[in-house]
Predict the structure.
Amino acid sequence: MLDLSRISVGDDIHHPLLVLDVQQKGGDHPRTVLVLGNRSGRIESAPFWAGRDEAIRDISKGMLVQVVGTVSEFRGSLQLDATSIRVLPKGSVDLSELVPSVGPVDKYWKYLDETRAAITAPRLRAVLDLFFGDDAFRIRFEQCPGAPGNGHHAQLGGLLQHTCEVVLIARQIARVARADEELVSAGAMLHDIGKLESYTWEEGVFDTTLHGRLAGHVAIGATMLATALAAQPEPVCTTEEAMLLEHFILSHHGKLEFGAAVKPMTLEAEILHFADDASAKTAAINEAYASSELFPNDSRISSKRVWQLDNRWLLRSEADFGRES
Amino acid sequence: MLDLSRISVGDDIHHPLLVLDVQQKGGDHPRTVLVLGNRSGRIESAPFWAGRDEAIRDISKGMLVQVVGTVSEFRGSLQLDATSIRVLPKGSVDLSELVPSVGPVDKYWKYLDETRAAITAPRLRAVLDLFFGDDAFRIRFEQCPGAPGNGHHAQLGGLLQHTCEVVLIARQIARVARADEELVSAGAMLHDIGKLESYTWEEGVFDTTLHGRLAGHVAIGATMLATALAAQPEPVCTTEEAMLLEHFILSHHGKLEFGAAVKPMTLEAEILHFADDASAKTAAINEAYASSELFPNDSRISSKRVWQLDNRWLLRSEADFGRES
Amino acid sequence: MLDLSRISVGDDIHHPLLVLDVQQKGGDHPRTVLVLGNRSGRIESAPFWAGRDEAIRDISKGMLVQVVGTVSEFRGSLQLDATSIRVLPKGSVDLSELVPSVGPVDKYWKYLDETRAAITAPRLRAVLDLFFGDDAFRIRFEQCPGAPGNGHHAQLGGLLQHTCEVVLIARQIARVARADEELVSAGAMLHDIGKLESYTWEEGVFDTTLHGRLAGHVAIGATMLATALAAQPEPVCTTEEAMLLEHFILSHHGKLEFGAAVKPMTLEAEILHFADDASAKTAAINEAYASSELFPNDSRISSKRVWQLDNRWLLRSEADFGRES
Amino acid sequence: MLDLSRISVGDDIHHPLLVLDVQQKGGDHPRTVLVLGNRSGRIESAPFWAGRDEAIRDISKGMLVQVVGTVSEFRGSLQLDATSIRVLPKGSVDLSELVPSVGPVDKYWKYLDETRAAITAPRLRAVLDLFFGDDAFRIRFEQCPGAPGNGHHAQLGGLLQHTCEVVLIARQIARVARADEELVSAGAMLHDIGKLESYTWEEGVFDTTLHGRLAGHVAIGATMLATALAAQPEPVCTTEEAMLLEHFILSHHGKLEFGAAVKPMTLEAEILHFADDASAKTAAINEAYASSELFPNDSRISSKRVWQLDNRWLLRSEADFGRES
Amino acid sequence: MLDLSRISVGDDIHHPLLVLDVQQKGGDHPRTVLVLGNRSGRIESAPFWAGRDEAIRDISKGMLVQVVGTVSEFRGSLQLDATSIRVLPKGSVDLSELVPSVGPVDKYWKYLDETRAAITAPRLRAVLDLFFGDDAFRIRFEQCPGAPGNGHHAQLGGLLQHTCEVVLIARQIARVARADEELVSAGAMLHDIGKLESYTWEEGVFDTTLHGRLAGHVAIGATMLATALAAQPEPVCTTEEAMLLEHFILSHHGKLEFGAAVKPMTLEAEILHFADDASAKTAAINEAYASSELFPNDSRISSKRVWQLDNRWLLRSEADFGRES
Amino acid sequence: MLDLSRISVGDDIHHPLLVLDVQQKGGDHPRTVLVLGNRSGRIESAPFWAGRDEAIRDISKGMLVQVVGTVSEFRGSLQLDATSIRVLPKGSVDLSELVPSVGPVDKYWKYLDETRAAITAPRLRAVLDLFFGDDAFRIRFEQCPGAPGNGHHAQLGGLLQHTCEVVLIARQIARVARADEELVSAGAMLHDIGKLESYTWEEGVFDTTLHGRLAGHVAIGATMLATALAAQPEPVCTTEEAMLLEHFILSHHGKLEFGAAVKPMTLEAEILHFADDASAKTAAINEAYASSELFPNDSRISSKRVWQLDNRWLLRSEADFGRES
């Protein structure tokens, strides 16, 4: 694999890369730019001006291509002057070489399945089984990223990892707050199922679906639950119980302006909201800590305010308080 | 019918009244207050203190009762000192005597049905027919109020009236903006169907259902559409068309902080949002103009800022610009 | 005319272009950039560094010039390396070749004048006639753009077109809301007259005047009305009627934070606010739909969030719901 | 004069009082309440129920009346049970007995007139003279309160006092900031002239006029300036100078959401905004310090948060830091 | 003990009660109201009018008194008509009879002390020992309420209970987020120490101190830490370590508008913020669930929106999902 | 000294320059950029790509270097292509040549010291003397900039200059508002002392310290005061007096969202807040007026909205109102 973080001006490139985006730039002077990448990073092509863009006529997002060209400098960054672009057959490079991933998912499934199996309320377990007992659901759920672009957990398997974190945190808050721990666990497992229909990742490009844009993962998740329940020959839970589970999905963003359909009305829904937010924000900070852009050369203070984290400065301290390492 | 706007201290009361609310007041000194009313207004009972409330043990919201008592004064308003309260059989007084209503609904149906019949896009009409061609739906739709409490169109039939207003306004904006007028009309007809499961009104008391509180009429409407479409043996429209219609429902509040799941993404959804808001706000102003509390004695300036209308003063001008009346 | 959307690197240019802006860039390294354009688009010149800018010493915004030079690439866009710049006499190229325009305005005048003539309230018509019966006013009103820069209706004639749209929408809302339709029409015609003193466009460059910046079109419009009324030998309407008309102008932005002097206090002023907003927002969406930058290559989803439209994604759907085209 | 702060339950009243308000209370049970007062405070009458309100049929706001009645207790406060109400001739009690006032205004005029006379820029002084050299203007300006109700400087003469304070503060900031001190002084003198047409006070009741409600004192002030300038046979200043003065009026509230038409664009306009705000807020704090409601019994911490002052607690400290008193 | 939730109009009272507040009401008609209470609730006295208030001249907040009087009704609630008020010696009734408390605190100390003892970083433990190893500190810390008035944990011992909850939640989030669990625990223990100087509770009345009002518990806590560290003969930690601990205190409110001096800059500070908020909000919901005012008569939906919880409705569901109880 | 505002493409450079920043740019293609400057302006170096950055391995912020290279053009600005970079000994160029400064500070000290000496309250003067009577404090106080980067008074000596302005303005407001002028003066002198520990400037680079980031100058200032008071063998003022002075520091930003720990609770603290804001905003406008970027070529309207000043347009008017210059 080409290591995109170590290329320099003048390097010759002739490696397989994923087409992450085909940016049509309109305006007064139309042009097209390819965004190419693999697991190690990304690089933009030099612009293909309108009328001179035959080389990329058939290139589309998600294709695997072999680019031959040279690295040059542009706008204070590096770009790729491509002399030839050839489409490679799908699957000729492993997806894990091309995109970030959380790694093996067995430990996440183990935790979720054990938690689910331990639930003593039969109707609660029955609703969860509709999803987590279904193999097709599990295959998609263990691949789906937590976010399509720059968000937290934007990796293959990120949704599963995030869901585990939310369950772990939510159960502890539930114990402290003397809430219904099983109900909180169930809400945590279900809260983001709408992301399965809101994101695409199959081609190695994380994107939002048309449905994801038009309805949002919150409303989609609620509809998925309603549809699954309606499809059962016998009701698996009472009407009020179904409403309570739907409410977890609809309220987990906490406030209307953050996309919740309603504010959390139950202690358990409030707990889910906190656990979801805590998992998301701590993951975002850990991702920022790992970013060579924000923390180049092991610096301790971030190089700028972090916009995604409420525009704040971050500090990676190494104070050990005298602890022996 | 007792005219509640003309009673005075010392009047004897012995009329049928609707129990609009049974307010349990807790705190340090628990008590219960009945809110009683009919189409002409409402009056509160004197409080029934805990331990001395046998007379109202079986009274619940929505009951029709005959109260015998006397009007007294309390907290700068009038209240009813009840000596006896007797439950009357349901239906012994006509609902239209007890609650506000928009009156005959034929003209509203005529407009909606003609608009629907004139739609040239077959799959659009087919989706509308799933709802507006269904008698059970129509019966509920023509009764449902536009809001449960103090909101605009809070009358029997208010939802139907509001829907007509939205279609009328939205079509005109669509013509001006060269949008798809049929699509806008369809979106307008569907936008508030979730209110059918969010409100109750059958007993003469307008209230919000548990589902209405836990999910909101926006999300409920989207689920109703999804469920209805899924229940058809053959698809009545394409997947994208279904998404566009669902998007009308999910986005018609315009902004997330006002309860939209997503912002309007199409010209037609934006038009629906404006038409909905224009119908709601102009109705609210007309209702304020008609309020004897805001405009006592034909005053021209409202007696106070109107909180529901963004805390503004209102003026009812009678300037005629020399027009012959 | 040079088609600025089809030029490429290396093209030789020797065409008349309008000087849209002369951007003095200060800071540590002063330089000047010309923004040149015609109806087909715009292009920036290469920077003229301080001390080497003799060629443009006499060039100012609004001049018509003939530029000889070559197209080069800079910052991912095209720019013009000028070798000579010669000022052309004003009027040697027709304004309509140089700036966007709504086209013939007869149909707009026809609608406005008929609406005005049909008004039955004599004092209302008399006030409108002070403006719309004045030829000098009409000449400026039919040219004035709706906005100076990137706003909606930013075309020659845009203000007239926008005014017609507002009247059309406002009358329909007035009918639905049982408001005074004639008063609403009059308010709609007058609401933006302050733009005549707030914008300049005569030289082909849409700009804001010093008065426009220092006072805003809302306050200017109110003063224009007051001055016009004060200049009449006999009052053409009562004091209260004058206040109501002034109130339309002062309140049409709806909220203080959007530039209204006061919130709408009458049903008619509220209607004008909605109609103004609906015309503006739908025009902005239609302009976004037509933008090759937002929708390059007939894409359906916008290439990015549209900042001017509350930072949202836009969808141009072509779903026809089975309609025969 | 009756001292309204020392009456008790059971006291007999038979004194002249001003009718501060005639509150028509509509709603389910219409009634009317008189608010009566003099310089020492105010008291509400017991409600006059609809149909039993003959005694007050001819009473209107601003009348001087003699009330015969008894003090009783109601809603945790005192009220007046009136047995007879008789209208007294206007002027039979001096206005200064009836309403709060800043006292003699000579010192304020002295400061303003000296400041004006010292201005070296002839056109600036000429514009000020249009207003402050006009006797009719001066008579109204020295009476007008700074606010109609609970706002700062809500006393007869309050506007004049506030204007002096603003000039005093603004000149000092101008000196520190090396701004045009004369221009700032002129802006300060003119900034609130619109209040003359926005408030009424002649009858002893401070109120907002219809024009004040419909246009606001900011827009009215700008129109007053424009009209005065237009009425001169010869221009007294240049167009740009007129705009700069108008800009003081239009921008002095600082932000659009606080009622400014535009944000301050010049150093001098920014200074005026600060001086206006500083005068207003410090006056509001001094008025709060003097309030027996907020600081009963010489308490040091306010009895509650002060809503008008951004909902904060106030402290009246008497720390003297060892200073000899 | 008198049970204040079960008294009725006409009851004779002659019990010891705590003076919770002496409300001086100024305004036009000055008066004083006593707020009296014990652990079972509170009741207001009838007002003592100025000049007739000898009976309470010497009564002040925090006194224990014996009131003889009768229960009457006023403003829709009950009040106490006192005929005599006699001051009782302090301590003649146990504090736990008079105010709410979290009960025995041993289990909370056990958890905190074990957690502290298990910390492996010596300088971290040393800083904690400065406070939690000090007996005077412990005595105050185990009594201090979590809030002075209506806030969460407003009980004797509430601060200690809240601190334990925060440590419990924060450690779990730290484990999930791979943060420094010991550092998070230390931050959690220290975050609210400023409340010791911000609140008073010794007399049975929870109140805010003058310092608490003038500086806030956040700034006070930071100063307490700085002072304690400065008072040591040898530094117990490095300068940067001290800053990190101070940062926990200064940032734990998360956002400036909620009172944080700075936003959390480290992963550990962010975790503390979430844990603090989760403990506070879940406690507030549990307290609302237990409120007879919000949930009278075991109702499931709250009787109104809960203002302290972001103005939302609450639901106490009893769905058991088929679980055997 | 090299005049950085007059260099052009192709110029050879071989001058001493200060290293203002060493920007490590991470991301997909790591690189380093030097920001170099002197009192006349700043210029960026061409990027040094990772692996080819030996020349700058030992360069760090604050160093004085001699750069040999050529001016080239990049991204529409000028940059420096360095062929050699040599570190010069500290102090070989005077700091005043390298950074902006307010000039001689004697006049500022004179005003502050006279004001301090005239204070009649002994305990107030004693507290001020702890700081302003201390030579080490004075040396740092007279150098410290008012802001580290682009803020107002970002010059050597800026804090002292700003403090004088605040005292001057605050005293005048105090006189107008009949506040304690001595107390206000003391608060003004102390309000920003926390900046001494929040900024660094010694090397010619204005920066924020780690403590400044983690605690903010408001909290640091409060701690500095507390520590200084605690260090005295005898109390120099009462506890309440100390709180009042601390309150000035903690509340001077006026609102929590602007970084105040608490809102101003006293008249004097409110006055300080206004004076601080007025000094800051007028300085920012004067600095904008002097900026060649905002006002190139003596233009009157700013070239763009000024983001730091609430995103407004600025006007530098030269209207003289007929005044003889």
